Amino acid sequence: MVAIVDNGSNPFELGVATELFGLRRPELDGQLRAPWYDFRLCAATPTVSMHAGFFSLSDVEPLDIVDDADTVLVPNRPDPAVSPSAPVVEAVRSAAARGARLMSFCTGAFTLAEAGVLDGRRATTHWRWADAFRARFPRVELDPDVLYVDEGAVLTSAGSAAALDLGLHVIRKDHGADVANAVSRRAVFAGHRDGGQRQFVERPVPRHVHAGLSDVLEWARRRLDRPLTVRDLARRAAVSPATLHRRFAAEVGTTPLVWLTGERVRLACQLLERGELPLDRVAEASGLGTASNLRSLLRKHVGVSPTEYRRRFGYRSRTTSVSAGSTSASAREARRSSE
């Protein structure tokens, strides 16, 4: 994996990439399906000035190492009106042409669009720049209301913290839910937020965080195999269902039912990865009820059938790293597959 750095790049997103993909992970010994990422930085020049000139990166590797990378993280722009350098755009185009997996954080979507690799594809970027993006790149199907978009060979995320969400999503795809959860714990970050979750909540986060809601979430996670309703969650939190809805909107950014369904789907994915339970048992253990409901919800939330998910991500699958070309082909195949 190679991250391209360009003059003016934001340091936060680069730090996220370094934290998630670049650190050694001795705590994961014996858990990995494939070697951990060989993470490297490169640029068109040996020294790169970061956003606002706060600091510079020196002795950065040359841009041509992109030619051998299976995953390329493109640079974002503090001012999307300023185009990335021509060598960077050409490197991105070449990577796309040979089938590398491309990924952007925040305004990095402008870099991908500048290279023409988002034409006809769905993508996202920071909500603040949505209008400017649409005006400049009308051939891209922009969705500014989600945290990230996975198009197989090309992945884009919204602003700042959504970089963590997309990065953990990629780790989950490459190494499984257990490894992604371990990485998120080390980063002290929520293990997985659905990519379709809204970028921001309707009102500011409350000044006083309600510790009881965290307790309710953990309580529910331990009981996903049992019938649970919004009223059950409200009773556990000692509030009315209406109050629970307000607190979920403020603190979680979604509704209790959407959150609960997402947690059940994630548990189902973990069960599919870990073993060979029949689909009706996976559905029962995750609280999704029936195999039919499992199929429907997995396709809605993940985009593939349970059988295809197990084939691609199960522990008995081939332990090869995911290349961009094969990922794209698998994604297209998965959308066509049926039980």
From TrEMBL:
Question: Which Gene Ontology terms cover its molecular function?
Answer: DNA-binding transcription factor activity; sequence-specific DNA binding
Q: Which ranges of the sequence are coiled-coil?
A: none
Q: Which domain of life is it from?
A: Bacteria
* Positions with biased composition (Low complexity): 320-331
Q: Which UniProt keywords apply?
A: DNA-binding, Transcription, Transcription regulation
Location of region: Disordered: 320-339
Q: Which stretches make up the HTH araC/xylS-type domain? A: 214-312
| Matching PROSITE patterns | HTH_ARAC_FAMILY_2 (PS01124)
Q: Which PANTHER family match?
A: ARAC-FAMILY TRANSCRIPTIONAL REGULATOR (PTHR43130), HTH-TYPE TRANSCRIPTIONAL REGULATOR RV1931C (PTHR43130:SF3)
Please give the name of this protein.
Answer: Transcriptional regulator containing an amidase domain and an AraC-type DNA-binding HTH domain
Q: Which organism is it from?
A: Saccharomonospora azurea NA-128
